[in-house]
Every structure is written in C-alpha cells, then in structure tokens.
Model the fold of this input.
Amino acid sequence: MSKESRKFQVPDALANVYDFANSLDLRHFTHCGVQHQQAEELADPSALGDWMHQHGLIDRGAVPSQRTFAAALQLRGAIRDYLKSDPAERHRKAAATAPLNKAMEPFALRVAAIGKDGFGLMPMQADAQAGLSAIVAELYNAAATGTLGRLKMCAAGECQRVFFDRSKPGTRRWCQSTLCGNREKTRTYRERHKHDTGSET
Ligand SMILES: [Zn+2]
Done:
C-alpha cells in the first residue's frame, strides 16, 4: 500500500494492483501553469525489486531476473490496457483479455486453505515470480468480489491515471473531476463553440 493509494482510499485488497498499474505515470497535462512530469518507477530490474520490496512483495535487496522484469512490464501493460476498457465491456473485448491472459501465464497460482479466511490463491513459485503472482491473485479476488469494475483508467488522454471509482453509481470517467473532468469539459465546450460560430483556429 502506498501514500497515493491511501490518499484516494483505494481498498487494501486492490492497492498493489492500483500501485503497479500506476508505476508508469503518463500524465503530461498542465495544471496551474506547471506541466506534470511523466515518470517510470520500474526503469530496470533493480528498480522493480525496490518497488516490490516497498509493497511487501519481495525481500529487501532481491533483484528480479531480466526475464521476470520483462514479464512484469508485459503484465503491467496488459493490466493497464484491460483497465482502459469500459468495465461493462472488458470481458467481451478479446483485444484486452487475450494479451492479459498471455501476460498472466508466467505467474502461476494454486488454491490453498489459509487460516480463518478459508481458501485463497497462493503463488506457485518463489521470489519475484511469487510477488508478481500475488498481484495477479489480487486481480482475481477483486474480480470475484466485484470491486475490479471500479478500477478504471482516467478518460483524459493526457492523464491515463488508473483510479478507484468511489462514486455511488460507479460511473466516473476521470480520476479527479475537478482536474481532468473540468479540463475535458472546457475543451469540449470550446470545440463545440468554435464549430457553432464557424470560426477557424
Ligand atoms: Zn485524470
């Protein structure tokens, strides 16, 4: 769990998926005159190891292999693409599910009886593979409990931040309506107005 996931009240059960998807920050909009700087938290295997350690997914100092690193980036990209689709459409979109299924393949899970919680999914492998499998297990559990549909990608092209929709109807399209929502609405209004008056840019 990160400061960011706490700030936006992302449920603990989804916090690792949320942080993992947002370890690539593509935001480049300008807010209050300052352009947001894009960032990549998983620049190389040791950065991935650090990130995983911060999330309790691997021992301190452990560095994933190059192969696991490549598989992790593949997994993150597929999760982001999946979350980009409308929650009601996701399961029907082979373009989102096929790459995700392929990306989850290296991270095998098994069912285990675990304490008072009953049964749960446990990673089959060890080390970094296990930590990334735990993220896949989070995805599965969130889908089973229905909360995954509230994890979405901001509809603003210059944002693409993954957010957890806490609104009652669960129909939010922007990570923050006061930020991305307003920007988009202003732009749409301007474009429509421009069209109405027939003026050119
Ligand atoms: Zn946004």
In short: The longest helix spans residues 177-197. The mean pLDDT is 92. The first strand starts at residue 24 and ends at 25. The chain has one domain: 3-105+143-197.
